[in-house]
Amino acid sequence: MPTGSELFVRSLQSQGVDTLFTLVGDHLNDVLQVAAREGMRIVDTRHESAAVHMADGWSRMTRKPGVSLVTGAPGHTNSITGIATAAATAVPMLAVSGMSASQARDCNAFQDQDQLKLVQGITKYSAVPAHAGRIPFHVKRAFLEMRNGRPGVAHLSIPVDLFKQAADAHYPVPQEPLEPHRPGADGRDIDRVIDLLRAARRPAVIAGAGAYWSGAGGELQAFIEAAGVPLFTISLARGLVSDDHPLCFGYADATLNRGAETALRQADLVIVVGKRIDYRLRLGGAQLFDDAAKFVQIDICGEELGLNRKPAVGLAADAKTALAALAEALRGAAVPDRSDWLAEVRRGCAAYAAEVAALAAEPGDPMHSLHVYRALKDKMPPDATICWDGGDFVHWGRYSLPARRPGYWLRLGALAGLGVALPMGLAAKILRPDSPSVVITGDGSVGFYIGEFDTAVRFGLPVVVIVGNDGGWGIERELQQGFYPDAPTVACELRRTRYDLVMKGFGGDGEHVTCPEQLPAALDRAFRSEVPFLLNVDIAGAGSPFTQYQLRNLRR
Predict the structure, then answer these.
(1) pLDDT at 106
(2) What's phi and psi for 394, nearest 5 deg?
(3) How far apart are CA 316 and CA 252, in angstroms?
(4) How many CA atoms lie within 13 A of 382 on its CB side?
(5) CATH classification of the domain holding 196
(6) Residue 555 pLDDT level (bands cut at 50, 70, 90)
(7) How far is CA 292 from CA 204, 307, 547, in A?
């Protein structure tokens, strides 16, 4: 008779899961023994939330659910930020926690906790199996829930006794991977979108994570080429169509890309594909869009249609199927000549790029963040996975470096919790061992999961970590100085710690960079390194476009 652990592992393997991200604890000893015996790769971290972030990053890069496995009670509570991060970014992943024994429930036993109450608000599905034989059912249900409709996190808390319990009868283990349903668009809605496109003089397309999850890169490119419209990408859609494509104009985030801000303000038709009309798009309001502009919204989650801005046409459909239908409808059809509009968008983007380039050319001591990205742009390998954390140093780079490949540009997500980039960067190096994994972070952000330097060294993951060190919480320092110019900053200052030496202490390598002239050679050494390598770069605190946007708009 199989045990609960064996049923759990077999159920995961039926869904193509071959890697578990974990941190060992008493509740997990049996299931980890079984997983290792069955050939699963076990990646153990130094913090439970880092394990969840790694599973989250794995999901984002593979488009297949990653799985984290942590112990109960404090391990479970430590995992909450990771679960919330994935949930806010609509990532399909399974977060599993061990749990105190079933017979000890509600008796004040050691590490007894109502774990579901902590996660029910941030998961699509959560459950505690009643007995070992029900584990395959809950794994199957979790995979169905997390992948259908808007993706999200599923959670199981599994009591320790169920992992060890033999199941004389059990729910069948799934025999094949469960594929999500991909709803198509109504043909009448497709016709209405085509009519709007033909009438528009200044249309624009914004593509978000929904286009990425559906694997719609080819369909998105075919559509913008057939329609002759400019494209802006955001979140996981960065690189879905390369920024090098003549119709792709980079980030849709107006807080970073003033060229996008200018174009979107002038657009008379905005087609939003797989992106919530959320705070990044200024809730669809007049801060970013003309009140008279018509909107088309394509989202697999029908509840999103019209939530913050009423669309002229709303398509509750999978992005890939909807874009394919739109491109097919445009095949051979006459579309307006939009060369003047495209030239105007191109000029606006080029004008802002020239402003940034001029700033990057100015000397500085300490150096400006842009000096780092000017050097990095020349040295970044084309197949590198770039994992971006938060902070002013990072925001300068998100504008400066192009995105060219889908799934190779990872951000924090809507929750914007700091520190996420390092564990995701480790996951990238495991998944893509022959390609560079680059973690770009600030001196504040790097402290959250600094123990994962040990994970990188133990697993032989030569990630490149670039820390922009300005000795403080840069965004908050800039905001406080902007809003309270006559008062000293509060709780914003840090030491200029030598994080390169910290990495060396864990068994990696690194360098301290103090001037722009040192950057090219230091980057070469970092990318050649066979161990984790950290560049600790002294930079001046300088408000990024993101922070400047906040100051400009919040003062109003």
Answers:
(1) 75
(2) -70, -40
(3) 22
(4) 4
(5) 3.40.50.1220
(6) low
(7) 14, 17, 29
Tokens of 340: 């003047």
55: Cβ contacts below 8 Å, ≥ 6 apart: 21, 66, 67, 68, 82, 86, 93, 94, 95, 427
Identify the pLDDT of residue 333. 78
Q: Per the domain annotation, does 178 fall within a domain? A: no
H helices of 80-233, in order, are 80-88, 115-119, 135-147, 160-164, 187-199, 209-213, 217-227
DSSP per position, 224-265: HHHHT--EEE-GGGBTTB-TTSTTEEEE--TTT-HHHHHHHH
Q: Clarify whether residues 229 and 374 are in a common domain.
A: no
Judged on CB neighbours under 10 Å (0-12, 13-18, 19+), 344 is middle
Interval 411-438: pLDDT, tens = 999 999 999 999 999 999 999 999 999 9
**Other residues' Cβ atoms within 10 Å of the Cβ of residue 246:** 10
pLDDT in tens, 214-228: 999 999 999 999 999
The tens digit of pLDDT for each residue in 123-150 reads: 999 999 999 999 999 999 999 999 999 9
Query: Which H or E element spans position 355?
Result: helix 339-361
Contacts of 43 (CB under 8 A, 6+ apart): 19, 20, 21, 22, 51, 54, 426, 430, 455, 459
pLDDT tens profile 261-293: 999 999 999 999 999 999 889 999 988 999 999
Q: What angle do CA 327, 300, 421 make, to 5 degrees?
A: 100
Question: For the domain that residue 139 is a member of, what is the CATH number?
Answer: 3.40.50.970
Other C-beta atoms closer than 10 Å to the C-beta of 261 total 21
- Domain of residue 127: give its range: 4-164
Q: Quick check: bond before 462 cis, omega within 30?
A: no
**Residue 357 placed within a domain:** no
Give pLDDT tens digits for 9-55: 999 999 999 999 999 999 999 999 999 999 999 999 999 999 999 99
Q: What is the pLDDT of residue 201?
A: 97
CA dihedral 71, 72, 74, 79 (to 10 degrees): 70
